[in-house]
Amino acid sequence: MVTLDFSDRLEIVGGKSGLRVLDEAGNELHGVARPGQNLVERALALCGREAQVTVHKRIPVGAGLGGGSADAAAVLRWAGFGDTVAAASIGADVAFCLAGGRARVGGIGEIVDPLPYVCEQYTLLLAPVGCDTAAVYAAWDELGGPAGEHGNDLEAAALRVVPELAVWRDRLGDSTGMTPQLAGSGSTWFVAGAHPGQGRIVATTTEAAAATRGGDWWECRWLLAPLVPGAPKHLLVLLLAHALAALLDERSHGA
After folding, report:
1. Which is higher by pLDDT, 5 or 252?
2. N or C: which end of the chain has fewer CB within 10 A?
3. Could you tell me the fold of the domain covering 1-117+206-249?
4. Dist CA 19 CA 50 (whole Å)
5. Pairwise CA distance, residues 91 & 68, whole Å
6. Which part of the chain has CATH 3.30.230.10?
7. What sections of 128-192 are H helices per DSSP?
Protein backbone atom coordinates (compact mmCIF):
# COMPACT_ATOMS: atom_id res chain seq x y z
CA MET A 1 0.00 0.00 0.00
CA VAL A 2 1.13 3.55 -0.62
CA THR A 3 -0.02 7.01 0.43
CA LEU A 4 -0.56 9.90 -1.96
CA ASP A 5 -0.50 13.68 -1.73
CA PHE A 6 -4.28 13.85 -2.21
CA SER A 7 -5.90 14.83 1.05
CA ASP A 8 -8.83 15.86 3.18
CA ARG A 9 -8.28 18.75 5.62
CA LEU A 10 -9.24 18.46 9.27
CA GLU A 11 -9.79 21.31 11.71
CA ILE A 12 -9.61 20.06 15.30
CA VAL A 13 -10.46 22.19 18.32
CA GLY A 14 -10.12 20.61 21.75
CA GLY A 15 -13.30 20.66 23.82
CA LYS A 16 -16.78 19.18 23.59
CA SER A 17 -16.91 16.58 20.82
CA GLY A 18 -18.73 17.23 17.58
CA LEU A 19 -18.28 16.42 13.91
CA ARG A 20 -19.04 18.27 10.69
CA VAL A 21 -18.18 17.07 7.19
CA LEU A 22 -18.06 19.64 4.39
CA ASP A 23 -17.46 19.37 0.66
CA GLU A 24 -14.90 21.48 -1.19
CA ALA A 25 -17.43 24.30 -1.58
CA GLY A 26 -18.08 24.35 2.17
CA ASN A 27 -21.50 22.68 1.98
CA GLU A 28 -22.55 20.18 4.64
CA LEU A 29 -22.36 16.55 3.52
CA HIS A 30 -25.39 14.89 5.08
CA GLY A 31 -25.36 11.22 6.02
CA VAL A 32 -21.56 11.05 6.31
CA ALA A 33 -21.24 12.09 9.96
CA ARG A 34 -23.76 9.58 11.33
CA PRO A 35 -23.35 9.36 15.13
CA GLY A 36 -21.12 6.49 16.21
CA GLN A 37 -20.45 5.29 12.66
CA ASN A 38 -17.86 7.78 11.42
CA LEU A 39 -14.22 6.73 11.84
CA VAL A 40 -13.29 10.17 13.19
CA GLU A 41 -15.65 9.67 16.14
CA ARG A 42 -14.31 6.17 16.69
CA ALA A 43 -10.77 7.54 16.71
CA LEU A 44 -11.67 10.14 19.35
CA ALA A 45 -13.27 7.45 21.49
CA LEU A 46 -10.25 5.18 21.07
CA CYS A 47 -7.76 7.78 22.26
CA GLY A 48 -10.06 9.06 25.00
CA ARG A 49 -10.12 12.65 23.76
CA GLU A 50 -12.87 15.15 23.04
CA ALA A 51 -12.69 17.63 20.19
CA GLN A 52 -14.78 19.51 17.67
CA VAL A 53 -13.71 18.17 14.28
CA THR A 54 -14.53 19.67 10.89
CA VAL A 55 -13.56 17.54 7.91
CA HIS A 56 -13.16 19.32 4.58
CA LYS A 57 -13.54 16.43 2.12
CA ARG A 58 -11.54 16.17 -1.07
CA ILE A 59 -11.25 12.39 -1.06
CA PRO A 60 -14.67 11.16 -2.22
CA VAL A 61 -16.74 8.89 0.00
CA GLY A 62 -16.91 5.35 -1.37
CA ALA A 63 -13.96 5.89 -3.70
CA GLY A 64 -11.75 3.09 -2.36
CA LEU A 65 -9.01 5.54 -1.38
CA GLY A 66 -9.29 5.17 2.38
CA GLY A 67 -10.32 8.76 3.06
CA GLY A 68 -12.18 7.83 6.24
CA SER A 69 -9.22 5.83 7.52
CA ALA A 70 -6.84 8.69 6.74
CA ASP A 71 -9.10 11.10 8.64
CA ALA A 72 -9.19 8.77 11.65
CA ALA A 73 -5.41 8.41 11.58
CA ALA A 74 -5.05 12.19 11.49
CA VAL A 75 -7.08 12.43 14.70
CA LEU A 76 -4.96 9.73 16.35
CA ARG A 77 -1.77 11.54 15.36
CA TRP A 78 -3.18 14.79 16.76
CA ALA A 79 -3.81 12.96 20.04
CA GLY A 80 -0.34 11.39 20.07
CA PHE A 81 -1.83 7.89 19.86
CA GLY A 82 0.40 5.31 18.18
CA ASP A 83 -0.96 1.86 19.08
CA THR A 84 -1.32 0.26 15.65
CA VAL A 85 -3.12 -2.85 16.92
CA ALA A 86 -5.78 -0.72 18.59
CA ALA A 87 -5.94 1.55 15.54
CA ALA A 88 -6.69 -1.43 13.30
CA SER A 89 -9.59 -2.36 15.57
CA ILE A 90 -11.58 0.68 14.38
CA GLY A 91 -10.67 0.28 10.69
CA ALA A 92 -8.39 -2.10 8.82
CA ASP A 93 -6.50 0.70 7.03
CA VAL A 94 -6.11 3.09 9.97
CA ALA A 95 -2.88 1.55 11.29
CA PHE A 96 -1.18 1.94 7.92
CA CYS A 97 -2.38 5.54 7.67
CA LEU A 98 -0.71 6.32 11.00
CA ALA A 99 2.66 5.66 9.36
CA GLY A 100 2.03 6.30 5.68
CA GLY A 101 4.64 5.85 3.00
CA ARG A 102 4.87 2.45 1.37
CA ALA A 103 4.33 -0.83 3.19
CA ARG A 104 3.13 -4.40 3.03
CA VAL A 105 0.12 -4.76 5.33
CA GLY A 106 -1.02 -8.01 6.94
CA GLY A 107 -3.27 -9.48 9.61
CA ILE A 108 -6.41 -7.39 9.90
CA GLY A 109 -4.36 -4.29 9.13
CA GLU A 110 -2.33 -4.12 12.33
CA ILE A 111 0.85 -5.56 10.76
CA VAL A 112 2.56 -2.79 8.82
CA ASP A 113 5.88 -3.80 7.28
CA PRO A 114 7.57 -0.64 5.88
CA LEU A 115 9.11 -0.78 2.42
CA PRO A 116 11.61 1.65 0.86
CA TYR A 117 10.04 4.85 -0.44
CA VAL A 118 9.63 5.10 -4.21
CA CYS A 119 8.59 8.44 -5.72
CA GLU A 120 5.91 7.72 -8.31
CA GLN A 121 2.94 9.42 -9.89
CA TYR A 122 -0.49 7.94 -10.49
CA THR A 123 -3.52 9.26 -12.30
CA LEU A 124 -6.78 8.66 -10.46
CA LEU A 125 -10.10 8.75 -12.28
CA LEU A 126 -12.75 9.63 -9.71
CA ALA A 127 -15.88 7.95 -11.04
CA PRO A 128 -19.05 9.90 -10.10
CA VAL A 129 -20.44 6.88 -8.24
CA GLY A 130 -19.60 5.32 -4.90
CA CYS A 131 -19.08 1.70 -3.89
CA ASP A 132 -20.42 0.34 -0.63
CA THR A 133 -17.52 -1.62 0.86
CA ALA A 134 -19.72 -4.16 2.65
CA ALA A 135 -21.73 -4.82 -0.51
CA VAL A 136 -18.56 -5.34 -2.55
CA TYR A 137 -17.15 -7.84 -0.06
CA ALA A 138 -20.50 -9.67 0.04
CA ALA A 139 -20.46 -9.88 -3.76
CA TRP A 140 -16.90 -11.20 -3.66
CA ASP A 141 -18.06 -14.01 -1.35
CA GLU A 142 -21.01 -14.75 -3.63
CA LEU A 143 -18.65 -15.00 -6.61
CA GLY A 144 -16.54 -17.56 -4.76
CA GLY A 145 -13.64 -15.28 -3.85
CA PRO A 146 -12.12 -14.79 -7.32
CA ALA A 147 -8.57 -13.54 -7.86
CA GLY A 148 -8.31 -10.27 -9.75
CA GLU A 149 -6.79 -10.31 -13.22
CA HIS A 150 -5.26 -6.86 -12.76
CA GLY A 151 -4.01 -7.05 -9.18
CA ASN A 152 -7.20 -6.32 -7.22
CA ASP A 153 -9.29 -9.31 -6.16
CA LEU A 154 -12.30 -7.06 -5.54
CA GLU A 155 -12.57 -5.76 -9.10
CA ALA A 156 -15.12 -8.32 -10.33
CA ALA A 157 -17.21 -7.87 -7.19
CA ALA A 158 -17.21 -4.07 -7.49
CA LEU A 159 -18.31 -4.33 -11.12
CA ARG A 160 -21.12 -6.64 -10.06
CA VAL A 161 -22.33 -4.15 -7.44
CA VAL A 162 -21.85 -1.06 -9.65
CA PRO A 163 -21.79 -2.21 -13.31
CA GLU A 164 -21.37 1.35 -14.64
CA LEU A 165 -17.83 1.34 -13.25
CA ALA A 166 -16.84 -0.40 -16.47
CA VAL A 167 -17.66 2.75 -18.44
CA TRP A 168 -15.17 4.82 -16.45
CA ARG A 169 -12.54 2.07 -16.57
CA ASP A 170 -12.79 1.94 -20.35
CA ARG A 171 -12.63 5.73 -20.71
CA LEU A 172 -9.39 5.88 -18.75
CA GLY A 173 -7.97 2.88 -20.56
CA ASP A 174 -8.88 4.15 -24.03
CA SER A 175 -7.40 7.60 -23.42
CA THR A 176 -4.13 6.38 -21.89
CA GLY A 177 -3.56 3.11 -23.72
CA MET A 178 -3.05 1.44 -20.34
CA THR A 179 -4.99 -1.09 -18.28
CA PRO A 180 -6.60 0.70 -15.31
CA GLN A 181 -6.64 -0.90 -11.87
CA LEU A 182 -9.32 -0.49 -9.25
CA ALA A 183 -8.40 1.16 -5.94
CA GLY A 184 -9.60 -0.79 -2.92
CA SER A 185 -13.25 -1.75 -3.17
CA GLY A 186 -13.85 1.00 -5.75
CA SER A 187 -14.91 3.30 -7.28
CA THR A 188 -11.61 4.93 -8.32
CA TRP A 189 -9.61 3.65 -11.30
CA PHE A 190 -5.92 4.45 -11.61
CA VAL A 191 -2.96 4.09 -13.95
CA ALA A 192 0.72 4.83 -13.48
CA GLY A 193 2.09 8.17 -14.66
CA ALA A 194 0.62 11.63 -15.19
CA HIS A 195 -2.38 11.77 -17.52
CA PRO A 196 -4.33 14.90 -16.54
CA GLY A 197 -7.90 15.34 -17.68
CA GLN A 198 -11.45 16.02 -16.55
CA GLY A 199 -12.42 14.10 -13.44
CA ARG A 200 -8.84 13.02 -12.83
CA ILE A 201 -6.31 13.67 -10.08
CA VAL A 202 -2.58 13.31 -10.70
CA ALA A 203 -1.05 12.37 -7.35
CA THR A 204 2.46 11.62 -6.11
CA THR A 205 3.41 9.06 -3.50
CA THR A 206 4.41 10.42 -0.09
CA GLU A 207 7.05 9.29 2.36
CA ALA A 208 6.38 7.70 5.74
CA ALA A 209 5.72 9.99 8.69
CA ALA A 210 9.20 9.79 10.18
CA ALA A 211 10.84 10.60 6.86
CA THR A 212 9.04 13.85 6.06
CA ARG A 213 10.17 17.37 6.88
CA GLY A 214 9.84 17.92 10.60
CA GLY A 215 8.87 14.28 11.08
CA ASP A 216 5.23 15.18 10.54
CA TRP A 217 3.65 13.39 7.60
CA TRP A 218 0.28 14.96 8.34
CA GLU A 219 1.69 18.43 7.74
CA CYS A 220 0.12 19.72 10.97
CA ARG A 221 0.00 23.48 11.32
CA TRP A 222 -0.67 24.64 14.84
CA LEU A 223 -2.59 27.92 14.93
CA LEU A 224 -4.30 29.89 17.66
CA ALA A 225 -8.04 29.93 17.11
CA PRO A 226 -9.60 33.40 16.90
CA LEU A 227 -10.12 34.73 20.41
CA VAL A 228 -13.37 36.43 21.38
CA PRO A 229 -14.26 37.86 24.81
CA GLY A 230 -15.06 35.07 27.24
CA ALA A 231 -14.13 32.31 24.81
CA PRO A 232 -11.74 29.54 25.90
CA LYS A 233 -8.29 29.56 24.35
CA HIS A 234 -8.21 26.49 22.14
CA LEU A 235 -5.56 25.35 19.75
CA LEU A 236 -6.83 24.88 16.23
CA VAL A 237 -5.09 22.09 14.37
CA LEU A 238 -5.16 21.82 10.60
CA LEU A 239 -4.20 18.38 9.36
CA LEU A 240 -4.00 17.05 5.87
CA ALA A 241 -5.35 13.52 5.88
CA HIS A 242 -3.63 11.94 2.92
CA ALA A 243 -5.35 9.49 0.68
CA LEU A 244 -4.53 5.90 1.31
CA ALA A 245 -4.10 4.52 -2.16
CA ALA A 246 -4.87 0.84 -1.98
CA LEU A 247 -2.73 0.52 -5.06
CA LEU A 248 -0.91 -2.73 -5.52
CA ASP A 249 2.74 -1.86 -6.01
CA GLU A 250 4.26 -4.71 -7.98
CA ARG A 251 7.66 -4.05 -6.42
CA SER A 252 6.23 -4.58 -2.94
CA HIS A 253 5.63 -8.25 -3.64
CA GLY A 254 9.31 -8.94 -4.12
CA ALA A 255 10.77 -6.37 -1.72
Report:
1. 5
2. C
3. Ribosomal Protein S5; domain 2 (3.30.230)
4. 11
5. 9
6. 1-117+206-249
7. 133-142, 155-161, 165-176
The larger pLDDT score, comparing residue 100 to residue 160, is at 160
Three-state SS at 155: helix
Distance of CA 146 to the CA centre of its chain: 25
Domain with CATH 3.30.70.890 in the chain: 121-204
Give yes or no for a contact between 230 and 56, defined as CB atoms under 8 angstroms apart. no
Q: State the Cα–Cα distance between residues 151 and 37, nearest whole angstrom.
A: 30
Query: DSSP letter at 91?
Result: -
Q: What is the pLDDT of residue 12?
A: 87
pLDDT at 209: 65
pLDDT tier, 99 (very low <50, low <70, confident <90, very high otherwise): confident
DSSP helix/strand/coil, 172: helix
Domain at 121-204: CATH architecture: 2-Layer Sandwich (3.30)
Task: Give Cα separations from 89 to 37, 44, 51, 85, 125 (angstroms).
Answer: 14, 13, 21, 7, 30
